[in-house]
Structure formats: structure tokens, C-alpha cells
Amino acid sequence: MRFKTVTSPHILQDTRVGQIMRRVLYAMLPGIAALTWFFGWGILINLTIATTVALLAETAMLAARGKPLALHLGDSSAIVTAWLLAVALPPLAPWWMTMIGVLSAIIVAKHLYGGLGYNPFNPAMIGYVVLLISFPREMSTWLIPHGLDQPQAMTFLETARAIFNSELPARFAPDALTGATPLDVLRTRLGLGKTVTEIRNSPVFGIVSGHGWEWAALGFLLGGLWLVYTRAADWRIPAGMLGGIAVISSTFYLINPQHYAPPWFHLWSGAAIFGAFFIATDPVTACATPRGRLIYGAGIGILVYIIRGFGGYPDGVAFSVLLMNIAAPTIDLYTQPKVFGARHR
Amino acid sequence: MNALKRLFPFHGGLKTVRHKAESNQSPIQPGILPARLTVPLRQHIGAMAKPRVQPGDRVLKGQMIGQPEGYISAAIHAPTSGVVTAVESRPVPHPSGLPDLCVVIDSDGEERWMDRQPVDYRALHPSELRNVLRNAGIVGLGGAAFPSAVKLNLGGQSEWLETLILNGAECEPWITCDDRLMRERAAGIVAGLRVMAHLLEPREVLIGIEADKPEAIAAMTDACAGTGYEVRPIPTRYPSGSGKQLVKLLTGKETPVEGLPVDVGVQCFNVATAYTVHRAIDHGEPLISRVVTVTGHVRQPGNIEALLGTPFAQLVEQCGGYRDGVERLIMGGPMMGFALHSDEVPLTKAANCILAASAAELAPEQSVMPCIRCGACVEACPADLLPQQLYWHARAREFDKARDYHLFSCIECGCCSYVCPSHIPLVQYYRYAKNEIWAQEKEKEKAELARRRHQARLERLEREKQEREAKLRQKAPGKAPLTPGPSPTRGEGSPDPASSSNP
């Protein structure tokens, strides 16, 4: 009898890249639900546009590169990129903006660098930064969250018209719908010389951080913890990033609590939680060594705080992630684990 | 029972499927005597044994048919009585698939033993005792088949041994031969262990057994009563049975990179090896049989104490034959064993398991995806390597960099491949890189040899020239030498391009 010869090991664990990616999608659901509750249909419409464009772009690029379509589309990585970008966009972002962002992410940041596994920069964040630099006004105009000033929520049709035709419903006053984000409010008013306590009295703030936002953060925290629990994300990266934010924001808060927001506000604001569990944990662009991942996360956290406090943008997760992406190979080089037996030399 | 003593877990490792129950339920059965035995002369690491028989010779059971050659070698014996019909190259179970020199014996069915002489090991000088073991063909039966006499000689390596470890971990899935042996022949194992301890004089003797073998642990604990040897149950975590990992687990000591456990005062043997030492010393029987697990997709999985040289096909037959759909025949376990082309190969000292695998036992074939650097391999690696980094460099043929990332610390346990969500055959890349590096080193050695030969030739020519001149001078005294100026010094300015690479 003749047998096939294949090299060991002959058994494998049943995990697939696609499984990990889909776990990321599931883990985003609670946060997406909270965002939808507070910011309306726009979130879901953006997600749909982004997913469609991402899948079309991914298919086209895979075909152009001569890769097997079913195998690579099955890894769901394009959908993950689309979702990560879509939830970061303002709920009423015009459709073409979402499209430009997704195309930059999938075509330029992912496939032109060699596709899944070869891209040095986080594709979703490249897409986001392209939009932030090109359309700063649109990117900083967020809907006012549900339950705040706004008398009635926009209907699905009104939202769709706003996104596809740039028509805002006539029944709302022009500035009754949109406003600055809590981090933006904090930034501008601190610039005007107000104290943190005064600013915190503004109705845009809720229990811990921004009204509405804080619930989305809770949703993403729950999903993120589940990701860590199922080992789809390495705990070291969110631990490093949130730890980094906590340490630097506490330091400044202790120096001057009237001029610097408290650490819990920073941890719970903007994209800190979402970024820590979902953006920074993209393994392709992060560090690969265990110690390196802690440092990588901490670096992002510190940069986020610096950009928020001293930079030109209200939040800085995207820039921080991209900056640390550049540093990742170097960090990896210097954080190699001691090989078994090296401790005795 | 044993209180759980302090253990020192190694990094990484896996909880794999176990599949022990298939074959560990029934006692070890004696192998059926085959009509023809094919006994390879290289069943161990080191030099091949030199054949001592010719076709036509009659041999007795246990008679030495291959003599150890050189220090790292072991003897080979006739597993039964009969007639030598051939001494020639035959297929053997080896990853290369290449044939090797074998002694073929047609059994006479009488099983007539040679004269067996038990040995009083206390009365012998250590070197004589080691020689007895070497001539009895004792090698490590855990799979590596390293000649045991060499490991039982501390020589100048260290004055005394801290710990002697007996490895009964048996961490690979499916394999149960050591489990059964410990359950059924614990006293024999301990008797052999006593001989080893006599030679090595360790301060402590530890027996590591994975906790999923409670019967074996109990049997060994009973057998060790009054000896001072300690049975230590260890967590069921692959690859706890790998030598260096077991040493770490039990003693906390890490074997240095490219070193041996003996460098940190520990020596490690398989339980089955200890048993064969007992047979050799207390019964005068050389190593001519071993217990092998035959399992997987066969009708009656079990353990057989079979004569070395028995064809795999016959062992499978004794276990009821293949069930339908066997795709792969694996010697060893599913994590580190290698797939054989054919079952027409003989049982060797290194063969602890024959695993007939169908699609049900194997991983479904998966398409390889790009590495997403998820780090699952880093978490799993028991050698604390960065497998994904090694993979990038091996793939790019950057062998120097692969070396910088400690390629040669890789024990090829397969943990990284097992957990890889992209199904990259990582271990295969490491083997490839290692082989390329070895090939390059051989090339270098060859070049160095050629360079030295060339230099020697130049020297010889120069010497001959000077001798000729001296003769000329003798013939014609008073005349000046023909060549003006000083003669060129050796090697210098030679046209040999290789000399520039001379360190």
C-alpha cells in the first residue's frame, strides 16, 4: 500500500483567518447598536455603503492581482476595514466621502502594499486620515446625540436624503442637528481659558464623558473584552494603550486639574476605547513580540493624549496608530523574547 | 498519592487532542513471529553498525549481527534465530525515503537464544558496564535513538550529576506504548533506572509522567517505594515530553542554547530505555524488540511488543488491518512523526508508534493564507522563538537573519503550525532553512579543504624546486643558484581566490 507523504504536524487547530476577522465584526455590534441609538440611521447607512464599496474594491483588486477570489473574500478582512472606518465617520457624511475613504483604504493602503498581511499601515486609519485632511469641516460635523436638545430623531428617509443628496430636512433649524463633539468642545473652550469644571457643565457631557458617546464606549469595551477573552485580540495592546493614556493624563491632571481633564474622561472619550480594542489590535500593522505590543500600545496612548491636549485635532487615535505603525518593526527588533536557554549564557 | 511538587512551567505549548483511549485499554500483546525480518544496521544516531554476518550464515536469537563503529554507535542483534539471506540496501522508515543497509533474516521459527549472561552491575567497572550496554544495542527509545552508553558517561563534562530524569511524559497524541509499559512493567523500569543511577550517581532521581496517566503514575509510584526515586505528575501539555522542556518543568533549569541537559547537571532517559537496560543487565538480553503503539484507523488499536525488523504491514495486520480510507501512515505521533511512503518497512528502535490516519484523524486540507502576524505562534512556541519572524526570513532565503532569530533553537515540535490560523506549514520552512544552512556550511568546508589542498600543493612544488636546486648545487659546487632573489614564502601571493576568505 502506498501513502501520501506530508510533513508534520499532521493535525491542526481549527482556526481560520476569516474566523478571527468575523469575531471582530461581532464584537463591534454592541458599540454599533449604541451609536445607532444615539446618532440614528446614518451609522447603519454608512456601514452599508462602506461594506459594499469595500467588497467591490477588494474583488476588483484580487482579480487584478490574480488571487483566488473565494478564498480571499472569505477572510472577511475587507469588511472589517470597512466597518472600522464607517463607525469613525460622522453619521451624515456624504456617500462619496465614505466611498473615497474606503477606496483609499482597500486599494491604496491594503492592496498596493501587497494585500492582507503585507500592509505596513492600518488601512482603515489611512482611509480616515485621507478624509480628515481632505474634508476637515465635514469630518468634524457630528450629529447631536439623541436625547440632547434635538426634539425628534431624523427618520430613515431623511437620513438617506442627507447622505445621498446632501439635503437636510427643512423641519430642523440648520444648527439644531449638528454640533461639535465633546472632545472638540473641551479643546476650544480650554483654548478660551475656561476651566475643566466650567466646561464639564455643558450639556454635551454625560456621566463620565460625552453624552451618548459614553454608551458607545461601553459597548465597544464589552465587545473588546470579549475579543481579548477569545484571544482574537492580544490583551497587551489595549492594556498598553489605555495604560498609556491613564498614566499621562493622570500626570497632567494631578499637576493642574482645572486645565487638564481627568484620566477617566480621556479614557472614556472619543475613540480611546474603540481604538484600543479594535484599531490598535490589527495584528498585521502592530508589533508582533509580547513586550513590543505593550510598548506599541503605550506609544499610541501617549500620542493620543499629546494630540488631544497639544495638537491641532480634537482626537488623535488615527494619527497615533499610523505613527506607531511606522515604529512597529523597530520595536519588534529590540523586544525579541529571550530564547529558551539564553538566560544561562 | 504524590503531593504536587513545585513545577516550573515552560513557555507556550498546547492542549492538543489526546486520543489515548483508543490504544491504552488492552495489555501489551506479543508480536507474531514474522517469516522474514529486515534489520537495518543504522537504527540509531551516529555511525552505522558494521555487519558481522554474511548471506548464508545461521544466527541465533540475540546474536550480534552489527558491531558498533566509533564512539557514538550501538550494536545490532538478530531478533530471532534463522538464516541470513541478504545483507543489502532495503527500504527503511526514514524521512528521506532512501533505502539503507539491512541484514535480512529468514526465521527458522525456533526462537533459539544465544547464551544469555546476566550481569552483576555493581561488580563491574563503569566503563565495562557501559560497554555491556553498548554491545546490547541500547539506545533512547523515545524516538531519537541516541546511544545510551554515551549519555551514561559523564566523562569530563561534569563531576557529578544533580538530577537524573526518567521521561514518561508521552505527550504526543495517540501514543500509549510508554503508558502501557509503565502500567505493566514498572518494576523492570525501576530496575533499569537503578543501573543508570549506579552509573551516574545523581543527587535525585525524578520520573515525569503526564497527569492523564493515573494508572501509570500509581504503578511507578509503587515500584519506586523504598528507592528514593520520586514520581512527579506533570500537567498534560504538549510538548512536556521534549527533553529540554521536561528538564525545565521538573528542575527549573534551562538547557543552554545549543547545549545539552547535562550542561546544567541533568540527564534524561525514556522509560522504555530504562526497561531495556534492565533486560540487558538482569537477563542478558540485547535490544531486539520494543513496544510499539499501532493506532488510528486500524480495526483493533493496541500495543505490540514486536521484534525489531518486523514489517509495519504485519503489525497493522495483527491489529486487525486498516479500516477504509487510510491516507497517511505516520511513524511517531501526529505532531512530530513523519509520513511513510509504504508499510513495507521494518520496525526500528526509534519507532514508538504507527499511526494509520484517515481524513478523520488528520487536519482537513486548508489553503495557505498570508501571515497576519497574529502572534498565536509566539504564544505557542515552547522555545521562546518568534516563529513568524523566522518564517519571513526562511521564506525570503535570508538564512543569516533566520539564524539571528535562533533558528537552531527550534525543536520542530509543530506547535506553531498547529495554531496558525493561516495554515502556513511553518515547521517545513524551518527545516528547509536548516537544510540550506547545513548545505552552505558543507560547501564552505569543501572550499576550505580545496584551499588547503591547493596551498599544500604550492608548498610541495616549492619544496621540490628547492630540493632540485640543492641537488644542482651539490653537482656543481661554487655555482650560484639559478633563480635570483628570495624564494616566495608559502601561500603568500598565491593566485588562489579562496585564500582571501581565509579567516
Structure, explained:
The complex is a heterodimer of chains A (345) and B (503). Chain A is mainly alpha-helical and 345 residues long. Chain A is 62% helix and 1% strand. In chain A, strands 1-2 form a two-stranded antiparallel sheet. Chain A starts with 16 loop residues before the first helix and ends in an 11-residue tail after the last helix. The relative contact order of chain A is 0.11. Chain B has 503 residues and is an alpha/beta fold. Chain B has 13 helices and 17 strands. In chain B, helix 3 (177-184) packs across helix 5 (214-223), helix 4 (186-200) crosses helix 7 and helix 10 crosses helix 13 (426-475). Classes of the chains: A mainly alpha (345), B alpha/beta (503).
The Rg value of chain B, from CA coordinates, equals 27 Å
Distance between the termini of chain A: 50 Å
- Indicate the overall shape of chain B: globular
Q: C-alpha Rg of chain A, in Å?
A: 21 Å
User: How would you classify the helix and strand content of chain B by structural class?
Assistant: alpha/beta
- SSE topology string of chain A: HHHHHHHEHHEHHHHHHHH
* Series of secondary-structure elements of chain B, N-terminal to C-terminal: EEEEEEEEHHEHHEHEHEHEEHEEEHHHHH
* Subunit arrangement of the protein: heterodimer
Low-confidence stretches of chain A: none
Mean pLDDT of chain A: 91
How many structurally independent domains of chain A? 2
Q: Biggest β-sheet of chain A: count, sense, barrel?
A: 2 strands, antiparallel
Q: Estimate percent helicity of chain A.
A: 55-70%
Chain-averaged pLDDT of chain B: 90
Q: What about the largest sheet of chain B?
A: 6 strands, mixed
- Please identify the structural class of chain A as seen in this structure: mainly alpha
Percent in strands of chain A = under 5%
Helix content of chain B: 25-40%
Q: Main sheet of chain B: which strands, in order across?
A: 1-14-13-17-15-16
